[in-house]
Here is the input.
Amino acid sequence: MSEFDFVITGAQVVRPDDDHPVALDVAVKEGQYALIEERIDPTRADRVVDASGRYLFPGAVDAHQHWGIYNELSTDAAQESQAAAQGGVTAGITYIRTGAYYLNRSGPYRELFPEVLEATEGRAYTDYAFHVAPILAEHLEEIPLLIQQFGVPSFKIFMFYGSHGLHGRSSDQHQFLMLPDDQAYDLAHFEFVMRAIQAAREDSRNAADRDRISLSLHCETAEIMKAYTKLVEQEGKLTGLEAYSSSRPPHSEGLAVTIAAYLAHETNLPNINLLHLTSRKAFEAAMLMQQTFPHINFRREVTIGHLLADFTTAGPGGKVNPPLRSRDDVEALWDHLLAGHVDWVCSDHACCRDETKFGEPREDVFVAKSGFGGAEYLLPGLITEGRRRGLSYNRIAALVAKSPAERYGLTGKGDISVGLDADFCLVDDDVEYVVRAEESLSAQEYTPFEGFTLTARVTDTYLRGVHVWDGERVVSAPTGRFVHRSGPKAALT
Here is the structure.
């Protein structure tokens, strides 16, 4: 019996904390990295994977996905995890909440979360975890249960749900979120969510998980959006994605960031994640709040969609919340990323099929659904555009793997180091090709990136040593597992 299951030779290994890629051999045993050296005798392994001419990246940890938002959760777990593996993703964290879409139900998570786990078990091709949104007042009391029993230490607030649904105006918040008549999803609720999460952090039973417990916020201001949507539609001067951006203007993001930051300060909750910042004004507010409240451990997220596309270059399927912005805003995001102000890059993958995405008339952006897939372009897209701008491969590895893994408690992920899960992908950066939706493994029949030219391709993806994607097709059974990130089971990993 050989010492290792296999050894990877010939690759340039990209580790987040190194200064540059290094020529190393990597040995894998029982799903974990077992040895990393300049030269490993191939006879010590059952087989050899020749990665000559390619880069070995840690598997991407896509910290922002949406399985089950437009399709059945079990369907997305099976299909969209394949698209994720195509993009070098080996672990994804998806959002769930009660109300319309997602579960299309209301009630306590102690009843609903086991159903979520049952729907995904044995179907995914990547490892996966969940962020949970406390919608009902009773959900606040369930936060300790979610942390300790279900291994979920990360939570979310959708700040714009006060008067808006997923796609625009929401005539009845209670109907959309399935709220009792005596409850509201508003700033007061957000404050109470923060207090409940901080109480959980201070609970001695969660001492080992304290740094993993965090709150993420979708930062848009409902009142601003409501007023500007009316203005844009009444004026009728703008159309398409530019109209949608103007109806949810950048200062709406900035104001919401400011409110969220002060509430975090008021409630003493230090671990705050500002999701998918899209604009110069959003980052202006985010950096100002970091200076104002240095005791808050902010993390700032950007999506690959907002880094690659603007409202003039994306296809008609590019409606998303917050919207795709102007080219000036795209350049501002890159300025902040290169300055070290962005903590991770994600996909915000939300498969919305063509027949679901578009309304009548098809070109009316205000009747289209929000969200699109993109996990399959996460690493190739970031390498393509980042390399052109001088972003190092090692920094890319930190942005897509190590930083989100550390923040969200995926302790066995995010790096290439002995003892961690052997999650990795091989990347060829000596290619040039045009994005075509038909080549994606996602069930989505279109992409806003149609026609974009990329210069990096994931040729292979491995999950815990299992070969999942070979550059053309999925070559394994669904071996993805739910990852406990807190509580007793997390302590055992």
The first helix runs from residue 73 to 86. The CA atoms of residues 219 and 293 lie 17 Å apart. The chain has 15 helices and 20 strands.
